TrEMBL record:
<dbReference type="InterPro" id="IPR012223">
    <property type="entry name" value="TEII"/>
</dbReference>
<dbReference type="Pfam" id="PF00975">
    <property type="entry name" value="Thioesterase"/>
</dbReference>
<feature type="domain" description="Thioesterase">
    <location>
        <begin position="55"/>
        <end position="269"/>
    </location>
</feature>
<protein>
    <recommendedName>
        <fullName>Thioesterase domain-containing protein</fullName>
    </recommendedName>
</protein>
<dbReference type="InterPro" id="IPR001031">
    <property type="entry name" value="Thioesterase"/>
</dbReference>
<dbReference type="InterPro" id="IPR029058">
    <property type="entry name" value="AB_hydrolase_fold"/>
</dbReference>
<comment type="similarity">
    <text>Belongs to the thioesterase family.</text>
</comment>
<dbReference type="GO" id="GO:0008610">
    <property type="term" value="P:lipid biosynthetic process"/>
</dbReference>
Length: 300
């Protein structure tokens, strides 16, 4: 939602007001509708490719929607079906009840995503999305005995590390804005009162989901990891990222890119090309291993 908010904040005031009112009406209409969300709402495929060698699921940061990864479907990923994960409360799902507990969200996501795991798959999670994708991969391993061929995590500390920040999801708006500012939310968004009123419920829910997370130890994955951080990120440093390594027995790469916490926007091409190269190597190695073993299962 923060990328949408940035675009709205850049519009003339009269257009801003009209769009914000549309968002509010949509929120109200969605609250009055009681029906389950089909899988198409959760998984956005901008260029569906059912013949692709691999399916990549991308998980956005707090407040963000699947459109954050729209360019990835047109970018450097060859023979990959790029799927953006769309959580309730943002973009085309604005107004739907949001999740505040990770365990509940993971159980829902596992059942939604399972039918799409008919080929090798990988996850990429950004900030909050890193935590969600990590725990979802664990749930899929426990429940369905399926594992990804590659995991990419960006802008989030290793999950076993204690949260060094105070819990802010219940804090007053002004305190909440301080953290959002540190995360790189544009000032024109933070100063737009109506826009913030539309965004805050979803953002608070996302922060609560992260702030109340409790790590539990499980065996490491056997697939490679790719880790990415922002050189100017004041919340997640290189050491925080490096500690992800204990969760994989395979090679793990770490790259620091120019920009703050939301370097996804300040260095988009660098991030996309770096992960595309890492993913291509994993797919090639995985395909060679499968051919050698002559096994029908793609799970690591």
């Amino acid at each position: 939602m923060t990328d949408l908010a940035t675009r709205i904040a850049a519009l003339p005031s009269e257009k801003q007001a009209a769009l914000i009112q549309q968002l509010k009406r949509k929120q109200l209409n969605q609250r009055n509708m009681v029906k389950p969300s089909p899988s198409e709402k959760w998984i956005v495929r901008y260029r569906p490719n059912d013949q692709a060698r691999l399916r990549l699921f991308c998980f956005p940061y707090a407040g963000g929607g699947a459109s954050v990864f729209r360019s990835w479907a047109d970018g450097a990923f060859e023979d990959v079906d790029v799927c953006g994960i769309q959580l309730p409360g943002r973009e085309n799902r604005i107004g739907e009840p949001v999740y505040t507990q990770l365990t509940t969200l993971i159980q829902t996501l596992a059942s939604v995503i399972q039918p799409y795991l008919d080929r090798p798959f990988a996850f990429f999670g950004y900030s909050m999305g890193a935590l969600i994708s990590f725990e979802l991969a664990r749930e899929l391993r426990r429940t369905y005995k399926k594992q990804p061929v590659h995991l990419g995590f960006a802008a989030f500390r290793a999950p076993q590390l204690p949260n060094p920040n105070i819990k802010i999801y219940h804090m007053p708006d002004e305190v909440f804005k301080v953290v959002m500012r540190a995360d790189g939310i544009p000032e024109q968004v933070l100063q737009n009162t109506e826009l913030m009123q539309a965004m805050l419920p979803t953002l608070r829910a996302d922060y609560e989901l992260c702030d109340t997370y409790q790590f539990k130890g499980e065996p490491a994955f056997s697939c490679p990891f790719s880790l990415y951080g922002g050189q100017d990120d004041v919340r997640v440093n290189q050491v925080d990222l490096d500690d992800w390594r204990i969760h994989s027995t395979a090679p793990t790469s770490l790259m620091m890119l120019p920009g703050p916490h939301l370097f996804l926007h300040s260095a988009p091409d660098l991030l996309m090309s770096a992960f595309a190269n890492d993913l291509a190597r994993s797919v090639s190695e995985f395909s060679s291993a499968i051919k050698t073993r002559q096994e029908g299962s793609y799970a690591y």
